[in-house]
Amino acid sequence: MKNAIRTMDLNLLKALDALLDERSVTRAADRLALTQPAVSGMLTRLRDCFGDPLFSRTQRGIVPTSRALELAAPVKQILSDMDALLQPKAFDPASAELTLTIAATDYALKAVVVPFIARLRQEAPGVKVSVVAIDYSQLQTQLERGDIDLALVTPETTPEGLHARNLFDEEYVCIMRSDHPQAREALTLDRFCKLDQVLVSHTGGRFSGATDEALAKIGKKRRVVMAVNSFLMLPEILRVSDLIAVTPYRLAATTDGMVVKTPPLPVAGFTKTLAWHDRTHRDAGHRWLRATLTELFA
Q1: Cα Rg of the chain (Å, integer)
Q2: Inter-residue contact 129 to 98 (CB < 8 Å)
Q3: Triad 137, 198, 139: Cα angle to 5°
Q4: pTM, 2 dp
Q5: CA distance 213 to 228
Q6: What is the pLDDT of residues 37-90, one digit of tens each?
Q7: What are phi and psi of 169, to 5 degrees?
Q8: Nearest Cα to 225, choosing from 250, 210, 253, 244?
Q9: Extended beta strands in 134-248, E state
Q10: Strands lying side by side in the sheet with 98-104
Q11: Cα three-residue angle 72-77-82, rounded to 5 degrees
Q12: Is the confidence at residue 5, as pLDDT, over 60?
């Protein structure tokens, strides 16, 4: 009996449950969408497994033995547990408690994470969010190990093999403080190239970027006199100087006290992408979190 239980087919338990409920081989067969001989055969195997007749035949059908009645509740519980195991757990944002770890640059922190947090506080207040600096060299490993759950990257920096979804396309604009001498003047290309500028270089030590590549194509250069490693530092620097900066529009639009101007030449923007590992791809909670995040920028 012990060995029989170890190798028991789950369908046998379903048959036993149906026989206990229906008290008829015919009705149990209909319920299971099987033939009557098939269910009779399953009953024979069940009797061998449990070492008990389980049912006695009468004029009105079959009557369970004492042993069969003892098995009724445990069998229903096992089948219920199996159904729960095989069904994805429902996710209720309002009552959910989990921690989401996001890898992001300082730009993505302000442009993406801040509005995301505002939405979460309304719809899923029990979700904690941890934001860590993005390390492109370790990104795939961190996602595989579960050190991070989501990464805010670009298509070019998304490691192969990850799931990814583009959130939005970003463009560059030129900003300066509201009382800058150039604030009310037209920003011509020649004037733009003569103004002292600050540039963001995440790697540090670089004094050229996408704007300089665009200028080089038309034989022009600008005056970059300062490089910083954070977009979030730009407003403070611009407020205390006559420097100007080329920055992503979503940062400029949320910064007070700045004048925003269109650059005097096209500067290639970038696409912000959400990336995640297959480890969390099917998880109901993570699916809801990703859907909520992408809806913000739909």
Answers
A1: 32
A2: no
A3: 10
A4: 0.71
A5: 18
A6: 999 999 999 999 899 999 999 888 899 999 999 999 899 888 888 876 776 677
A7: -100, 135
A8: 244
A9: 150-153, 163-170, 172-177, 196-200, 223-228, 244-248
A10: 127-133, 98-104, 150-153, 270-276, 163-170
A11: 130
A12: no
pLDDT in tens, 93-133: 999 999 999 999 999 999 999 999 999 999 999 999 999 99
* Token pair in block for residue 184: 């009310």
Cα separation, 139 vs 221, in Å, equals 35
What contacts 37, CB < 8 A, 6 or more positions away? none
Of 142, 164, 138, 130, nearest in space to 271 by CA = 164
Contacts of 56 (CB under 8 A, 6+ apart): 62, 63, 65
| Per-residue pLDDT reduced to its tens digit, 173-186 | 999 999 999 999 99
The two three-digit tokens of residue 242, written as one number: 């006559």
SS3 category, 200: strand
